[in-house]
Each structure stands twice: as structure tokens, then as C-alpha cells.
Amino acid sequence: MSLKGFQKTVIRAPQTLKQRFNIGEHTKDAVYIDAERRFQELEKETKKLHDESKKYFEAINGMLNHQIEFSKAIQEIYKPISGRVSDPDSIKQEGNPEGIRACEEYEAIVRELQETLQPELEMIQQRIIAPADELLTVIKVVQKSTVKRQHKQLDYDRHRATLKKLQDKKDKSLKDEKALYKAENDVEQATQEFNYFNDLLKDELPKLFTLEREFIQPLFQSFYYMQLNIFYTLHERMQSIDIGYFDLTQDVEVAFEAKRGDIKDQVEALSIVHFKATGGKKPASRYGSSKLALEQKSSSAVIRRRSHDTLDAPPPYSSSLSPALSSVSSSMVGRANSTGSSWGAAAKAKGAAPPPPKPKPSRLSAAPVVETATALYDYEAQAEGDLSFSLGDVIEIVQRGATENEWWTGKLRGRQGQFPGNYVQVN
């Protein structure tokens, strides 16, 4: 912006604020306001026409490039893995030579399509995108005239307000008379300049709209025919593909199932696709009585052998949720309807329970009794509030349910949580 333009902007600033906040009198021409609105729509839609045409041009090119890259990826997968360090049968030459040849043929067809469609895509550039650029250039020139007209309107309203203020003044001095004379001249000049741009735009903007419709019509027709040529060429070439690797006589789903075979079942049979990190057997502690450690080790071995000979660990259940889990009951619905009392019977197949101890002396009746249970299986917490433990862990029971088929509360290594009662044996 030049220094002169900056000075004019500063002078027009008060009137600009008044116009923006609708303070005072402002010139309004309904015909021009409607023409200006249509002109703004024309500018917006022409920009959209240019952008969408360019996106279509890039999309066709991108589609063909993606087809080639897809074929290359498939070809790389089909290559034999013999000779690689991770291949245990590196001597055997394995691979899919038919699939590799099919990929090469498909890539050659797509590259041929690129060369065939190149003239059509260049026509989109020449007949759609380039004319849209020219129309945008014309619109930018017209936009300068609309900005000029807006500036002249600000000057016109500003000088009129000054003249009206001086005219309404009752006692005029000599200085006021000179200012009044100058204001009348400014209003006259501002009126001429404003009317020139206002009338010019009101007269020629409708003509521009008419020419714009005539300009767009051949663009749309050209785009339609070029689109037909592109899709016809794509369809004809793809329809005439004769690659023996593809069986085009069958239904798509039937051909897919025939090619896939039992691959899905073979993949599901692999252990690594079902990998899950769960708590295993913990190493023996370095501290404590050796006799106690041997007894625990012996007991754990017997329990593990029995569980392997009979049944696996029972799944968790939720036949009756404890009050502590009422806030997370929705996350534990999946643990409902699990095992019944048969799991508990299987877990207790260690022989008859020992006789109960003698009654405690009355002086010790008020002392708290710590009840414990030994874990029969590994258990990994499945929800917030659960207590994880491993086979052989001794758990302090905080609250036990009425039966073993309920969730109990216990403590282990300073942590408190819920666990299934049929996973432990009360000591």
C-alpha cells in the first residue's frame, strides 16, 4: 500500500466503523446489493469449479498410480522366501510364479492405460482447468472495481455527513462559511465519483453473469464427454484383460473362496496369532523355611498334575455380584453364566477335609482370626477391582461368599481385590 493509500484509509476509518456498526446514514442501492451478492456467488463457485476439476484430474492419475503400486506390493508378497535367514527351508524354492507373472501383466496393462488416457487428461487441463483460471482472473479485475466503488461510497457518506452537520449549525462564523463551501464542493465531487462506479457495476455485472453462463456451458459439455471417454477406455481395457491367473467366469465370492481355500483355518491354527500374556508359575522365593518351601512346591505339583489330568482352570463367573463390584458390574457381564459347583468339586478332589480345631479359650475369643486360602490356578485380573494371583499363592480372605461359586474379597502382597472362589482352596 502506498503512502497516499494509507492516508486515505486512515481518513475513511471513522466512516468504516460507522458503516460496520450501522451508525448514522448510509447509502444503500438495492439493485447493486443484489448484483454484488450474485457476483460473490460467482467468485465462490468459479473457485470451486477450478479446484474440483483439478482434484478430478489428480484423482484419475492417482488411481492409476495406486493400481501400479498395489500390483508391486502383491508381486513382492508372491516372491519366494528361500535363502532368507528366517526361512527354515531355505533350500526349497517356494513362491508363486503364476501370481508374479499376473502382477507383471496387470502392471503393463495399467501403464498402457496411463499412456492412452494421457491426452484425455491433458484436455481436462486445457479445456476445464485453464479456462476456469482465466475466469478467476477476470473476476479479480472486477473485484478491484467493487472495492473502488466501496471506497467512493465511504467518501460520499462521509462528505454528506460533514455537509449536513455544517448546514444544521445555526450561528455560522466566517470559518464555518468557508468550511460549508468546501463541504459542498467535496459532496459534489464524491457524488460524481460514486455514481460513476455504482452505475458502471449495476450496468455491466448483469452482462458478466450472462457471459459467465455462456462460458460455463461448453466447459460442462467438454467435461461430460471427456469423462465418458475416460470411463469407456477404462471399462473396455479392463473388460478385455486376459490373464490366466484370474478366473472371470465365476462369481466374485465363489472365485475368492476357491482361491482362499483353508488358509484361514491354517492361520487360526498358529499359536502366535492367539498370543496372550497371562500370569504363569512364579519362581520360588529365596527366603523362608526350606521345609515350608518344599511342602508348598510338593503341594503345587500335586495340584497342577491333578488339574492337568482332569480339567483346565474354570472360567470366572458372576452368578451373584458382591457389593464392592456394583459400580463395575457392566464390565463383568461377560464373566456371567460360567461354571457351577462341579468346578469346585473338581478343585477339591484332594481328599477329605481335616477335622476342625478345638474351641478357642474364652480369653482369646475377641482376637481376630485371619483366614487364608491357597490358589489352585493362575488368575489374571479381568476388570478393575480384581485380584491377580498365581498357582500356590496364599491369599488372605477379607470377605468370602456364601458358596465357592461367588466372588470373594482377599489380600495378596498388599493389594486387595475380588477373585473367583472356585479358584482357591481354603486353608
Q: Could you report the average pLDDT, rounded to the nearest whole number?
A: 77
**Helix segment count?**
8
Spatial strand arrangement across the major sheet:
4-3-2-1-5
What proportion strand? 5-15%
Number of strands: 5
* Range of helix content: 55-70%
Instruction: Return Rg in Å.
Output: 44 Å
Structural class: alpha+beta
Low-confidence stretches: 279-311, 318-344, 362-366
CA-CA gap between termini: 92 Å
Which overall shape is indicated by the principal axes computed on the Cα atoms? flat
Provide key terms for this protein.
427 residues; 5 strands; alpha+beta; flat
How would you characterize the overall build of this protein?
The chain has 427 residues and is α+β, with helices and mostly antiparallel strands. 58% of the residues lie in helices and 6% in strands. The protein has eight helices and five strands, in the order ααααααααβββββ. It has helices spanning 3-20, 30-78, 97-167, 174-239, 252-260, 263-268, 290-309, 341-347; strands at 371-375, 394-399, 407-412, 415-420, 424-426. It has a five-stranded antiparallel sheet, with no helix packed on it. The longest helix has 71 residues, at 97-167. The protein is flat, with a radius of gyration of 44 Å. The chain starts with a helix and ends with a strand. The model is unreliable at 279-311, 318-344 and 362-366 (pLDDT under 50).
